[in-house]
Amino acid sequence: MTRIGLVVNPVAGLGGRVGLGGTDGPDRPRVALSLGARPQAGARAAAALGELAARAGGPARDGLLVVTAAGPLGADSVAAAGLADRIVYAAAAGRDTTAADTAAAVRAVVAEDVGLLLFAGGDGTARDVLGALGNVHCPVLGVPTGVKMHSAVFAVGPRAAGEVAAAWLGRTGGVRLRDAEVMDRDEDALAEGRVTSRLHGWLPVPDVPVRVQQRKTGSTTVSPEAVGGIAAEVAERVGEGLLVLGPGSTTRAVAAALGADVSLTGVDALALRPGHPPRVVARDAREDTLLALGPAWLALSPIGGQGFLLGRGNQQISPRVLRAAGGREHLLVLCTEAKLAALGGRPLLLDTGDDALDAELSGHLPVITGRRRTSLYRLAM
Fold first, then answer.
1. So where are the chain's domains?
2. What would the DSSP string read from start to end of 76-130?
């Protein structure tokens, strides 16, 4: 039988839609749940396994065995995907799972000689996997279920993870391993107003460039001329109305050029009116706050190096919010020409968690790069 490992961090990503950022820390998951967060890691892991099973097909599917941990740490996702499992670890009953459970599950799973370890989580989970493996060499691939995911060890989406896993296990297309960076947000830099990441190590990942994401690159200084031009274009397009700004240094600089102070890592909303200073109507907004705003313009900037437009660090802008705001027609993509060129032609990426919406948003869209300046660029899922 073909053995594949799976470890799920069941609380990964809980903080996204409720505006908490990550869920690292003992109390954060409970706070997120109290704010109405709904677990999604297990379902996204199941989607990855479902894609793997579909691509394996027939006898190959019947020969798949998923080595995993009990309950929400993996077995629930395996059952949802309809695959056979072998449970090699169970967390103690009556308590929440912790990073120690992730590490123990990883060690137990890789001891079973799996051909690939899939883990579902974010950057914090990637660090736990890195620490648990130590000197053990095992191919690894992350199913993106966290909030930020600056690391280069994740597939671009759950189904992409299943696609890459199938290619690796089937040895199709000459897939090889590469050492991919495990990154996490640099909190010291964030305190100084910069969004950048710190390197923690490397993990061996199947090298499928289009389906495995790049690491996030640090924010760079944006020229006042470029920012001013983008801001003027945004103001003209919005006119009198609501403008929701996603996180990032570019959108923050554009807001400052408009005359507003917004957060660096949160989602904020401005009321714009020609000839008047902008008014902040929501700061560090949650999904429910954005839904209450109704139709609005959504100003987003892709993550440097990765190219993600939706699904990384801005989960508050959920599928429901996107539809309520007006969909594709109300999407303003903001990016300097230098940042766009650094992507090397790779598309801007979508991972909203709603495949139908991602397909609807995909295709070419004008990217605002300055005053009266746009570049037609491809969005893909």
1. 2-206, 224-380
2. HHHHHHT-EEEEEE-PPTTS---HHHHHHHHHHHHTT--S-EEEEE-HHHHHHHH
Pick the closest to residue 274 from 312, 325, 318, 240 (CA basis): 240
Q: Which amino acid is at 5?
A: G
Which CATH architecture describes the domain 2-206?
A: 3-Layer(aba) Sandwich (3.40)
**Closest among 351, 272, 356 to 314, alpha carbons compared:** 351
| Residue 248 binned pLDDT confidence (cut-offs 50, 70, 90) | very high
Give tens-digit pLDDT for 104-152: 999 999 999 999 999 999 999 999 999 999 999 999 999 999 998 999 9
**Is the Cβ–Cβ distance between 316 and 290 less than 8 Å?**
yes
Tens of pLDDT, residues 158-208: 999 999 999 999 987 789 999 999 999 887 777 667 777 899 999 999 999
d(CA 196, CA 191): 11
Strand, helix or coil for residue 38: coil
